[in-house]
Specification:
With 153 residues, the protein is mainly β. 11% of the residues lie in helices and 48% in strands.
């Protein structure tokens, strides 16, 4: 494989932890990674939408990734991290427990997501990566908000 082919096949991912599980998203969708900021609750929002923050004049909805994936929800506090990412054309904050790494991987490093027998999580996991003894699930950001909420966010 020549150097040019290797460069075109590499993609970067941000790996993060939610509870005891590891996930990643394409770094091209990430605008920034920031420390926790106070969240203003949003009445009548889905349980996984923790509320809003003001990011330098832009109001962002905060999605609790754990709650969205039917995992135990995060407890918003100073130890948590907000990944500011684009979901479609909307900027959204993703509340996670910790950012672990930025990885450069070849396109074929991910295996297809296995049939998990759980309809609640299948739309969110598009692939699985094995690194050493760890399993990292590739999230489909486009499914983190339903289409009508992504447009309203």
């Amino acid at each position: 494989m020549n150097a040019k082919t290797t460069e075109t096949n590499l993609r970067s991912f941000v790996a993060f932890r939610v509870g005891e599980q590891e996930f990643c998203i394409d770094v091209m969708s990430v605008r920034e990674i920031r420390g926790f900021a106070p969240i203003t609750p949003l009445p009548h929002s889905p349980a996984y939408v923790r509320g809003l923050i003001n990011l330098r004049g832009t109001v962002l909805p905060i999605v609790d990734v754990g709650a969205r994936l039917c995992l135990p929800p995060s407890h918003p506090d100073a130890r948590r991290v907000i990944i500011v990412a684009w979901i479609g054309k909307k900027l959204v904050g993703l509340l996670v427990d910790a950012v672990l790494d930025i990885m450069a991987l070849e396109d074929d490093a991910f295996q297809p997501a296995p049939d998990m027998g759980c309809e609640a999580i299948e739309p969110f996991v598009t692939g699985v990566l094995t690194v050493d003894e760890r399993m990292i699930c590739l999230l489909a950001l486009k499914n983190m908000l339903p289409e009508d909420e992504a447009e309203a966010a």
